């Protein structure tokens, strides 16, 4: 870990709002320990949280302490890297690795804990709503409860739930609630399901390096091709990691989607209202979490518009002041930089505007 204080970011004419930041309450880690102790524990979960929760490495220790702290340590790390506000979600896989009953009962507990922390630091911490897709009706109710009670304006879903995808209409009560309350869904990566992970795992490519993007990109594409946005035209999805690379695929996705539908090759690929890339421009916002890379950010801005690309750090997993400095220095107009770092996040998450 580099010393963030050695190269503190400059004062800039925008507030830096980081939009894909994580936390893990101790109460959830206790549940995780019980799951990890089982003989049939999910291989991806064991390889991800099983590693971080037991490794003595400096990286794992930093992540575990950063995930749990919602006070001095987190704020000190934010100050050291020039982050004014974090938009925080229950870390992956959240409650989605739990059995249905535990997940449904723990999601509101976790939201209560997060709301309490945000209340203590109202200009620094903003919370997203965790839900248990295992019970779509309960998830829809929790969106309503946390939104109304705490003013939380976004939902986090850590990709698949026990190998199932939101493209399945049995989950669409969640989309209905998200659309009704105008709460975008941050579709965040999860470790790959058992049926997918082996070929990635044997090469060490299952995690954030590559597998997360593949699996979460697949999830987003499944939602698009399912026709969900024709049913819920106002539904908004947030995708991290430069849209899990989907913007770079867009031309081929459009061409092959049209060709595949026309060929009637799959019962699961029916005609939908518009091209996949059209939905990316109207129903998605992309963040640069984990990708502090000017060409990728600018390409995505050019593709979907500057209003649909937001800043994210991915704290505590990717905590680096050098990256903030690099992004401050992007060759981009002041107006576009303001949108990227601050005002897009204020609009998407309904965060009250604070001038820089
Ligand atoms: Mn993340």
What does this structure look like?
By secondary structure, this protein is of the alpha/beta class. It has a single domain, classed as Metal-dependent hydrolases (TIM Barrel). The strands form 2 sheets. A 6-stranded parallel β-sheet has the order 4-5-6-7-8-9. A 3-stranded parallel β-sheet has the order 1-2-3. α5 runs parallel beside α6 and α6 packs parallel to α7. The longest helix has 21 residues. The chain is globular and about 60 Å long. The site of manganese (II) ion has 7 residues, from β1.
Small-molecule components bound:
manganese (II) ion
For the largest sheet, list the strands in their spatial order: 4-5-6-7-8-9
Task: Predict the CATH topology.
Answer: TIM Barrel
Order of helices and strands: EHHHHEHEEHEHEHHHEHHHEHEHH
Structural class of the secondary elements?
Answer: alpha/beta
Shape call: globular
User: Major sheet: size, sense and barrel closure?
Assistant: 6 strands, parallel
